[in-house]
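Q: Hi! First time asking for a complex rather than a single chain. Here are the components, and I think there are three in total. Is that enough to go on?
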Amino acid sequence: MERIFRIISQSSATFLFFVLIATVSVLYLYAKPAIEQFGTYFIIDPRWGVEVTVKESPTKAIQTTPSSPQASSEPTTTPTEEENLEDEDTQASISDDENLDNLDAGLDDDLGGEDIDAQITSDDEDDFEANPTNAAGEKTEVVYGGAVPIVGTIFSTAIAMLFSIPIAMGIAVFLSEIAHEKLVAPVGIAIELLAAIPSIIYGMWALFYFGPFIASIFGGHSVSLLVAGLTLGVMIIPFMAALSRDAINTTPDVLKESAYAMGATKLEVTKDIIFPYAKAGIIGSIIISLGRALGETMAVAFVIGGVFEFAKSVTDPTNSIPVVLANNFAESSGLSMNALFYLALILFVVSFIIIFAAKHYFLRRNKL
Amino acid sequence: MTQNKMEVKDFSFTYKGAAKPSLRNINLPIERKKVTALIGPSGCGKSTLLRSMNRIHDLYPGNKYEGQIMLHTEDEGHTDILTLKKENDFIWLRQTVGMVFQKPTPFPMSIFDNIAYGLRLQGEKNKAVLQEKVEKSLKDVALWKEVKDRLNDDARGLSGGQQQRLCIARVVALKPEVILFDEPTSALDPLSTLAIEEMIFELKQDYTIAIVTHNMQQASRISDYTAFMYLGELIEFDTTDNIFTAPKKQQTEDYITGKFG
Amino acid sequence: MRLFLNKAFLVLSTLTAILGLLFLGWIIVTLVSKGMESLTPYIFTHDLVDNGIRNLIWGQIVLAGLATVFGIPIGVLAGVYLQEYGNHTKYADFIRDLSDVMMSAPSIVIGTFIYAIMVIPMGHTNGWAGIAALFVMMLPIVVRTTDDMLSLVPTELREAGMAIGASKYHVIMHIVIRAAKVGIMTGLILAFARIMGETAPLLYTSGSTIYMETDLSQTYPAMTVSIYNLATMPDEKLVSLAWAAALVLTLMVLGLNLLGRYIIKEKR
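A: Yes, that's all I need. Here is the structure of the assembled complex.
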């Protein structure tokens, strides 16, 4: 009994590890065709589902890829990828690794501002892509790139952080240092309950009320990068405020008292004593909130617009990784689905790194 | 000018929400440039009284003061500190009546900045002056030799006794007129305690000192006057010699001979 | 100047707090006022096909409930291992870190993972996939809660148990877990509340349907997913129904949260 129990509990813990490994490897497995197809160039390629014409050519030819993402978002006509169809049999025998190497090499060139020299092989993964060969011996192919949602995710998260940090800190300081005792408990509980509200509620509110409100102030669309960012911001405010308040409350009273006893004002005590003392906890709470904003789907899905275009100004609609996944997953198949898994993998790895870093540098087993 | 630096007159204090006052009708003089010790069993109100003397209680709203606590200074003359209302006046009071707490409270900054902090609050910006005053204060508390090579280290890296001396230096740097000590050695080992007691003895030259202690030997070693408090009242106040050798009240005698408390 | 800055700081901080609370108040007011419009007894007795939300409430509770049923034993056992057996070992610390990271993993990614392993093989969305996705969401929360709550049990209690000759298993089951029971219960309720409100992991795992469904191998009704679908419909009536559903969902989630708080408060 004793041993069995120990073994069961240990395997439960290991199960967690297993789930994580399974997540990463399944995502990778399904993303693999897209990774092979597009390589790391995927990250900076702004085209999504764009058909490109591929000339038949027996040799590797150097093609021009517009190095400015804005310009290249113009659809269809720009031929970018070179495909060697005639040697299909021999190409198929090239190992995956070699393909990847080729692509990486191509990417490096491109990053250096040079033209891309990418040799895309038509191996069996491409079979579920429609690759009609037209009369002129040309073939069209669909290209997927993740730059738009990646940039959209970064910007919406950045806007959210810029908006929410001051307000959340204001609330945290207000609750722990300024508010009258009678206010502290109800406001504190309200904040914590608000942090528990399902994110889809924030999304709906933003779609019907907040979006139009923002648009009436800043102009532009009522679904836009700005609205998405601000909605995310509003959503993480209670979360961040509650965590920061906990961190601030760890400052010992006697430390504050001795600063007041030297004639410091509230501002000075907050600035010089509380923030430095609770610094690790506060930064930790900001990073945890950042992770949450980064992976948030529902609050953003309604209001970011879901279009594969860079926002030329903050009031334009664009896209973010979670939203792309939410909107496009059901209808996708083949390579587009692989590309979506690729995006999911990127999102997972990035948030993994952020949280892991946060834990190791700032949290050290604090409350998440 | 009276001999007394501070005078507590008919003072009562009630904590927020408490039915009964924690201190009742206290009358206590604090003589200039002497050490006055407050002793008594825990819960007798000695710390409460001390914390009233720079109104640190006011950080927590809702407490009630009655009576008077007079503070006599050369600049401001006679002030009843219980009448202060403005933030400005509180700052003045707390810089005039400094306080050292039970546990060392180094601020989360470097050793140098810890001491310079209060000076900067007073508006001192000149680096040379700061440097000089920090050095002087650290020498006053006999910490200079130990820390002079690591002034920029985080103050929280010091030992407990060093931290407490740093906190005293921090108060001394502000040149207050009165220093309140709230059981400053109760968290320290015997050697550090001895160092701090010697320091208080030195500080008496320049400052008026009130100290709360639960340690009767300490009170008898360092103080000139002793007040014995019990259950929120001042039972007896006299010179330390008299209190420890010829107490007039039975309760005082019982306490100092160790019959209770 | 110092005093002026201080005043300015106090005012500014109070203002930001008020601003933040205004936003949040705005959301609540919107939710309640819009939600009340369509909140009639009718919607609780009819399925979505007849403009009701009965099947959605059923589906959401079944999905979250079964995820909890699977999540509790594994999560609690893993927590017990971390705190009672593996504590201070590198392996336990490693699992702890992983669990914390998983807790913050983007929920949509968990949806894609389950889609790959459970929806693609089945060929269509199904209830089991939804349960699996919520289970993966919930597991790290349960592990964390159990771990934390057990760590609050004083070591003396364990030693006292050992001292009267109880085996480690007995000490854990009959003393330690009992001592931490209230805390763990609260944690479980909060974890349940958390996954009740999840949308993203369900979007393409359980999907959602307008009909009542009891077969978990079929596409299963999920309230949150339907709210998402309804809210973007051009039909005013459906949008209004979405608000009502959103209100019901929020009340359930907040109700569970309050219950959790109440339990822990009673104990103290």
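A: Chain C has a mean pLDDT of 87. Let me know if you'd like any chain examined more closely.
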